[in-house]
Amino acid sequence: MKKLMSIVLLGTTLVFAACGSDDDSSDPVVTDCEICDLDILGTIVSGEYCDNGDGTITVTIDGEEETESLDGVTFDEFIAAFDQLGATCN
Protein backbone atom coordinates (compact mmCIF):
# COMPACT_ATOMS: atom_id res chain seq x y z
CA MET A 1 0.00 0.00 0.00
CA LYS A 2 2.94 2.33 0.62
CA LYS A 3 3.88 1.82 -3.02
CA LEU A 4 0.41 3.00 -4.10
CA MET A 5 0.61 5.99 -1.75
CA SER A 6 3.97 6.87 -3.25
CA ILE A 7 2.48 6.69 -6.74
CA VAL A 8 -0.37 9.02 -5.72
CA LEU A 9 2.02 11.52 -4.13
CA LEU A 10 4.41 11.30 -7.09
CA GLY A 11 1.54 11.89 -9.51
CA THR A 12 0.35 14.81 -7.45
CA THR A 13 3.84 16.28 -7.41
CA LEU A 14 4.16 15.90 -11.17
CA VAL A 15 0.80 17.59 -11.73
CA PHE A 16 1.70 20.51 -9.51
CA ALA A 17 5.43 20.90 -10.11
CA ALA A 18 6.15 24.53 -9.39
CA CYS A 19 8.47 26.68 -7.32
CA GLY A 20 7.06 27.88 -4.07
CA SER A 21 8.27 29.41 -0.87
CA ASP A 22 8.76 27.32 2.22
CA ASP A 23 6.57 28.53 5.04
CA ASP A 24 7.62 27.31 8.46
CA SER A 25 4.44 28.47 10.19
CA SER A 26 3.60 26.38 13.20
CA ASP A 27 0.17 25.03 14.11
CA PRO A 28 -1.66 25.49 10.79
CA VAL A 29 -5.45 25.69 11.06
CA VAL A 30 -7.40 23.14 9.00
CA THR A 31 -10.11 24.94 7.07
CA ASP A 32 -11.38 22.46 4.48
CA CYS A 33 -11.10 18.70 3.88
CA GLU A 34 -11.97 16.44 0.96
CA ILE A 35 -11.96 12.65 0.80
CA CYS A 36 -10.91 11.41 -2.63
CA ASP A 37 -11.01 7.88 -4.02
CA LEU A 38 -8.66 7.19 -6.93
CA ASP A 39 -8.46 3.96 -8.94
CA ILE A 40 -4.79 3.08 -9.40
CA LEU A 41 -4.22 -0.07 -11.44
CA GLY A 42 -7.52 -1.55 -10.26
CA THR A 43 -7.01 -0.68 -6.60
CA ILE A 44 -9.06 2.09 -5.02
CA VAL A 45 -6.87 4.37 -2.92
CA SER A 46 -8.81 6.60 -0.54
CA GLY A 47 -7.20 9.64 1.01
CA GLU A 48 -8.22 12.62 3.06
CA TYR A 49 -6.78 15.96 1.91
CA CYS A 50 -7.12 18.91 4.29
CA ASP A 51 -6.27 22.52 3.50
CA ASN A 52 -4.16 23.95 6.32
CA GLY A 53 -4.74 27.53 5.14
CA ASP A 54 -1.01 28.22 4.89
CA GLY A 55 -0.12 26.85 1.45
CA THR A 56 0.12 23.27 2.72
CA ILE A 57 -2.21 20.31 2.92
CA THR A 58 -2.37 17.41 5.32
CA VAL A 59 -2.66 14.11 3.44
CA THR A 60 -3.93 11.04 5.31
CA ILE A 61 -3.84 7.68 3.54
CA ASP A 62 -4.22 4.39 5.44
CA GLY A 63 -3.82 6.22 8.74
CA GLU A 64 -0.48 7.73 7.73
CA GLU A 65 -0.46 11.52 7.83
CA GLU A 66 1.93 13.82 5.97
CA THR A 67 2.03 17.56 5.37
CA GLU A 68 2.77 18.57 1.78
CA SER A 69 3.28 21.94 0.09
CA LEU A 70 0.71 23.05 -2.48
CA ASP A 71 3.60 24.67 -4.41
CA GLY A 72 1.62 27.79 -5.27
CA VAL A 73 -1.70 26.23 -6.32
CA THR A 74 -4.91 26.66 -4.36
CA PHE A 75 -6.58 23.81 -2.51
CA ASP A 76 -9.49 23.95 -4.98
CA GLU A 77 -7.06 23.61 -7.91
CA PHE A 78 -5.42 20.66 -6.17
CA ILE A 79 -8.78 18.88 -5.74
CA ALA A 80 -9.79 19.74 -9.34
CA ALA A 81 -6.63 17.95 -10.55
CA PHE A 82 -7.77 14.82 -8.73
CA ASP A 83 -11.13 15.11 -10.48
CA GLN A 84 -9.29 15.32 -13.83
CA LEU A 85 -7.42 12.11 -12.94
CA GLY A 86 -10.79 10.38 -12.51
CA ALA A 87 -10.97 10.52 -8.72
CA THR A 88 -14.21 10.87 -6.83
CA CYS A 89 -13.92 13.60 -4.19
CA ASN A 90 -16.46 14.67 -1.59
In short:
With 90 residues, the chain is of the alpha+beta class. Helix content is 27%, strand content 36%.
Helix content: 25-40%
Summarize the main sheet: 5 strands, antiparallel
Going by helix content, strand content and strand pairing, the class is alpha+beta
- Give the uncertain stretches in residue-range form: 12-21
Which series of helices and strands comes N to C? HEEEEHE
Major beta sheet, strand line-up = 4-3-2-1-5
The end-to-end distance, rounded to whole angstroms, is 22 Å
Mean pLDDT: 78
Total count of helical runs of at least 4 residues: 2
Q: What radius of gyration results from the CA coordinates?
A: 12 Å
| Structural shape | globular
How would you name the oligomeric state of the polypeptide chains in this document?
single chain
Strand content: 35-45%
Let me know the number of strands. Answer: 5
Task: Describe the protein.
It contains 2 helices and 5 strands, in the order αββββαβ. The protein is of the alpha+beta class and 90 residues long. The chain is globular, with a radius of gyration of 12 Å. 16% of the residues are buried.
Which features characterize this protein?
90 residues; alpha+beta; 5-stranded antiparallel β-sheet; 2 helices; 5 strands; 27% helix
Secondary structure blueprint with pairings:
Elements: H1 2-15, E1 32-40, E2 43-51, E3 56-61, E4 64-69, H2 75-84, E5 88-89
Antiparallel strand pairs: 1-2, 1-5, 2-3, 3-4
